[in-house]
Each structure stands twice: as C-alpha cells, then as structure tokens.
Amino acid sequence: MEVRKTMELPSKEILLKLYRDLLTARRVEAELYSRQGNLAGSGGGAHRGPGEEVIPIAFCNNLTETDCFCPNFRTGFCLFTKPGFTLVDIVATSMGKTGKGIHDTRRTPEYGTMPGQGTLGEGSVRYLGAAAAASMKKTGDIVVFIQGDGASNRAPTHEAMAVAGAWQLPIIFVIQNNRYGMGTAVEKSYSIEDLSLRGVGYGFPHERVDGNDMIAMYLVAKKHIERTRAGGGPSLIAADTWRLRPHFEGDSQVYRPKGEVDEWWKREPLGRYQKELMDLGVLTEEDVDRLEAEVKAEIQAAFDEVEALPVSIPSYRAGSLEELEKTAIAEL
Amino acid sequence: MAVINYVGAINQALKEEMRRDERVVIWGEDMISMDGVHGQTRDIYNEFGGDRIRDTPICEQAITGMTIGAAHRGLRPIGVFMNASFGLSAFDGMFLQLGCSGSGLPVVLYGVIAGPREDNGHGTSPEALCIHAPYLKVVMPSTPYDAKGLFKTAIRDDSPVVFWDHAWCFFMGHKDGAIERGANTQEVPEEEYLIPFGEADIKREGSDITLVTFSFMVHPALAAAHNLAKEGISVEVVDLRTLVPLDVETIVKSTKKTGRLLVVHEAMKRGGIAGEIIFRVQEEAPDLLASLKTPFRRLAAKNLPLDAAFGPMLVPSAETIAAAVKEMVV
Description:
The structure holds two protein chains of two kinds. Chain A has twelve helices and seven strands. Chain A is of the alpha/beta class. In chain A, helix 2 (12-35) packs antiparallel against helix 10, helix 2 (12-35) packs across helix 11 and helix 5 packs parallel to helix 6. Chain B is of the alpha/beta class. Chain B is built from 14 helices and 16 strands. The relative contact order of chain B is 0.12. At the A-B interface, helix 5 and helix 6 of A face helix 3 and helix 4 of B.
C-alpha cells in the first residue's frame, strides 16, 4: 500500500490498541448475535458485519469526543472505539436496555451520532449538516461519514458531496466497499473499480485503500482527518473489504458464486493483522492468548452490567406509549 | 405603522429572529445571489454575513438533511427550497426524517408555491403530502401581517415546521371584489408580535355560510364574499393560517352559526386537505350534522396536472367560489 511507504508506522502502543479494538469488536459482535440476533436494531434478520471492522476502528481511533461519526449500519457495534462511547453502551443499546449513563448510540448528538434510518444514503446529508454547523459555529469538530457501496449510489450522497465541495466543509466521506448492495454485486452497480474516483468530480482529494489492512487503514484515516481538521475541506476514501455474512441472516445468498465466502474468510482482517504484528515482533503467542482472555472477560463484564439493567421498549423515541403520544401535535 | 407587502413582512420576520437568536441560519437556493428570488432575504447577508446565510447548490435533499443534522448540533436552521415543488425531491428528508423522526428538532423548511399559471414543477401545492407526517407543522398564510407573525413563531418552534408561501400573495390581493396586482399590502407593526399556531382567523364575518380556506385562496374567497354581499348573501371567511395544528374549534363554531360549510383550496381535490377538514368537523362535532342546512361541500383544483395555459381554469377563482356558495345558499 502506498500509504505504508509514505507514512511512519504507528507506535507499538497504537498498534496494540488497534489489535485489542479489532479483537473486541469481532468477539462482541459474535456474542451479541448469539444472544440477541438483532444487531442493527432492524426488525428482520440481523445485518452482521464481521470482517469489516477495520474501517470504523481506524477512523474512531483518530477522532475526539465531539467529532461526528457515522458508522456503516453493518458495523455499528464498532462504535465503542469512538471517544465518548464504551463497550457497555454498545451492548446495552443492542440488547434493548437503557439505564443511567447508558447512551443510546442512535441518538447522542453530543457525542456526534444521530439516529439511524432505513433509507440508507440519506444520512450523508444529515451528517453534512453537522459539518455545516461545525463550520458556522467554528467548533473545530470534523465529521466522518461511512456508508456502503450500495448506499453511496443514492442521490443524497451526491448532493452531500456537491455541497461539501462547494462550501469546503469539514467532512470525510467513506465508502465501505463490501462488494454487495444487498444482493447486487458492486460490478453491476458501478462502472469504475476504484470507487474513490467519484471524488474527482467533486474536487475532493480521494484515496483507495485496502480496508482489511489495519495499519494502512489507520494511516489513511489519520492523514485525512488531520488534513480536514486543519481546514483542508472534504475528501473521499474508498475502503475495499468483503461482506462475509449474508445481507441479513437467513438470506439464501443465491447471488454469490460458490466458494467466494470461504475464500474471503481466509483474508479476513483479524487473523491478518495478528500475523503482521507477530511478524513485526509487536505481539507474541502469549500476548494473543492473554488478550483473548482479557477481552473475553471485558465482554462478559459488559454483558453482566447490562444484564442488571431493566429491559426497555426497543424504541429510541420514548420509553412508553404514553410518552410517545406526548410527542404528537395536538390530536392523535 | 408602515404599510408593507408580503415579501417585506417575511424579510422583517427573518431579520428580527436572526438578531434575536444567533443560532438561526438560512441555507437555500439563491438566498444571497438573488435575495431569495422574490426579495425575502434582501440585505440579510450584509447584516449577518456568510456564517448565518448561505447559497446552496440546487440540491433540496442536501438542504433538508443539513437542517436536520445542524439542528442535532445546536443550530436552528431554515432550509429554503426556491419552490415548494422542488422540495418534493427531498421527500425522504422532509417526510421520513423530519416528519416521522424529527420531533424536537427546531427546523423550518420554507418554499414558495408559484401558483397555477406554472407547471407542476413550480406550481404544485404540496400541503396534503405534508399533513400526513406525525411531526410536521404546516403553515400557509395569506397576508403580510399573518406571514410575519407566523414566520417568527415557526422559527421559535422547537419542532419541525413546513412554511409554504404562495407567490401570488406576494403580488396580488383582493380589492373591491376583484383580484388586483399590488393589493396584498397591510400595516404591519415594526414591534414584536407573534401569531400562535392552530388559531384560524376570521377574515370576514358573515351569517349564511362558512367558507374555510387558506393561503392565496383567501383572496378570491374574500373577493367572492364582497360580491355576494351585494346579492344579499353573507359569507364568513375563515383563514386557517396553519393546517397542522388545525383549528377545528373555530370551523365548528362558525358552521354552527351559519349552518353551511364550504372548504376551498388550490391543491387537487382527490386526497386534498378539504376531505380531512370536513371529516374532522364531523368527528369532533357530530351534533352539527342535524343542524346543517345543506351538506358539506369542497371546491378544489380538478385532478389534472397544472399547465401554463389552463392552470388558472383548473383551480378555484372568485367566480367559481361565488357560484359554489350560491348553489349551497339558494
């Protein structure tokens, strides 16, 4: 990767933090799915995202508490790596629990997230508004907005990029290219292979990166965040990864060639990064076992803490029907 | 008190609220470069600068989404589509994100209905599409005084408001039973005043029939009422001013007095708001039915697309309103 040649390797401390984040993300997602099966808060089968964690983790590790961040809906569980959020927050909101000090990740504008919506792509213009607010109020906050290759074809994304370019707003658009928009392969919905080329027309600096390469992804995120934070304006990053799970659990995946998923599991980022750190001498076999145990205990502790909380109505607008009715205009 | 027109009233409302609250920002098409096309934003850039008002590219989805995101982050944005019709391309943002999820977001979306002499892409009246959303308040004034007081209320509201102006209100009003250019001017106070939402205004008192309408249609309704008075028919004209919240109480009270109810609007009849208004009256005042002298009636545009040549013939006019009233009263 080009970025590895031009930028210094992150410190050992950062490399290990990224490893722990990636390991935690992978394990907590599996645990959530086994217990709850409803990760994205969707009513249907879970929309899982193992294998795509590197992209949000790389950005979150370069953000501040007040920066705005939108993960792709499939990797929302990685939000615990964004300053302002904890593992307990993510577990609680995924398990339909609320309680004191527990943030609903879908509505915490003070920590830079907004409610999610089913009409994907539309979030781009709302996060654009956060960037405009930061620019007008001169807060110094920036916005990182991640969505998939499918949503990136939708009209609001293009309008968001048009305004971001014209106004030079502090926002970084990221296409988490996992090769499938539901059942449609990226080749069938784009006429370009390097999706970052979309940035050319909007006058953005643009970069394609291997989204399964933890170090390259971290360096690219760091570079672009520093640039935007310094007043450099918007940019577009295309991070290539692969969707290892069906669009939703239960989807028959008739649109996938046989063997494809098995092939890409071999290239998934956790094992790849672990091997690289061992090759670099940053991580030993003992470290791997110790971290695995530590993360397991940390996740268990988070679930225990959440378990004790009362179950709440899985609504992010109100805790009861009466409360929801109070939001109505005049008559019902 | 100065006599000003409708556009001048909007301009005053914007300036006063922007002076009062620095969180109020305006983003939209030709806000600076063309003063909002009709002059609504004249001199605002000079007074407040580029952090408070900004020209967007022509992209209504971005305008709508930005207001939502910025409201989440502490601003009170006004998003402006040049034409109300253009706003329909942002229906996801307007209906789903704001209308169904935007409770508690201080956003105003503003656009101008160009009137029936235009194509659908400029002249459509989209209020029926908006009232279906649980969290959208819908404001459609007819006079300079109402426009100023209601716009100030809209900006101060802590929930989403859709404010649709009608371009014909900018240029035309009623005078002596006719629609006349330049007739929609009024004395408008320079000092502070607000008009609460959900309070209809009786623009003309009468005893034979209640004519409920809003936006530009108030003017042909008043022209018709003026002419019918000469024939001995007394028409009470109720200007709703806001469609959500809807002042059913005033409609019911007036209809109880007159025994007749006619609802007039410029949008197409099928699925139009007249059906909603009439049914609401029936639901909330079932006792009214027994005292009605004639069944409820509505007068609206034909269910046809607008068209420069035929548009004015498709929508109600002072003449067709008068004819409908006569059929009900005589």
